[in-house]
Design a protein that fits this description.
Layout (H helix, E strand, L loop, with lengths): L1 H30 L18 E3 L3 E12 L9 H14 L4 E11 L8 E12 L6 H25 L4 E10 L7 H16 L6 E5 L3 E12 L2 E9 L2 E5 L1
Antiparallel strand pairs: 1-8, 2-4, 2-5, 3-4, 6-9, 7-8
Helix pairs in contact: 2-3
Length: about 240
């Protein structure tokens, strides 16, 4: 009986010694000044962005016409030119057209009946002077003019159709704001760094803006510009 008690006590003592040794090794690794710092992930970009006044209104347009004679999409050129005239009459200082699609579709092999279609983008420069109400009046005048044009064309050609979507308010040269966007991002990161406490801190390296500047509609008089910035993080010990 005494031998059994002695063996049990010896086993318990062995287990306690092993646990104490493991705890000691763990403490040495955690507190060693030469131990490697853990890898740090790339620092996600904090909210950025600046608000600017848009200088253009962009519309997508499509025109279609059923034709039983000759000719192709060029038959719709006068209608596209009328869109430009409507925009200028509404007060747009400058108008640009980008034709992105010109098609001829026919359900018959002999093309005796055809549908002509053109589509593209119409960009109207917004007046630099004037308030938001003046801009709204210009947009309304242009869209009312397009609806009037469609009614006029249909009286002459019943199959004529106009599709207009938009506008999207944009800054024509968003790249002019890239330096300011990056500067604002860095100032926020620096402000965050001043509040960092503890044995380690992050130092940002190789910060670079990636991709194109994005634009988000805010109002008739405001567009928010943003750019993604990636800064790999580097852990430092103090």
């Amino acid at each position: 009986m005494n031998i059994r008690y002695l063996l049990a006590a010896a086993c318990l003592l062995t287990v306690l010694v092993a646990c104490m040794s493991l705890l000691e090794r763990t403490h040495l690794v955690a507190s060693s000044p030469g131990s490697d710092l853990p890898d740090t992930p790339d620092v996600p970009p904090p909210p950025t962005g600046i608000v600017m006044r848009p200088d253009s209104a962009v519309y997508s347009f499509g025109l279609s016409l059923e034709s039983k004679g000759g000719g192709g999409p060029e038959l719709l050129r006068p209608a596209v030119e009328k869109l430009v005239q409507r925009a200028r009459a509404a007060g747009a200082p400058r108008v640009e057209v980008q034709l992105r699609r010109a098609e001829v579709m026919s359900p018959n092999s002999d093309e005796s009946e055809r549908t002509l279609e053109v589509g593209g983008v119409l960009e109207l420069e917004l007046p630099r002077d004037g308030d938001v109400w003046a801009r709204a009046a210009m947009i309304n005048a242009f869209e009312s003019g397009v609806r009037a044009q469609e009614r006029e064309e249909r009286r002459r050609q019943p199959s004529f159709q106009v599709a207009l979507s938009g506008p999207e308010f944009r800054v024509r040269d968003p790249e002019s704001a890239r330096a300011e966007l990056v500067r604002k991002w860095m100032s926020r990161v620096e402000a965050l760094g001043t509040t960092t406490s503890g044995p380690t801190a992050l130092r940002l390296v190789s910060c670079a803006p990636l991709g194109a500047i994005t634009q988000s509609y805010a109002s008739l008089d405001q567009v928010q510009l943003d750019v993604a910035v990636l800064c790999p993080g580097e852990a430092r010990e103090f």
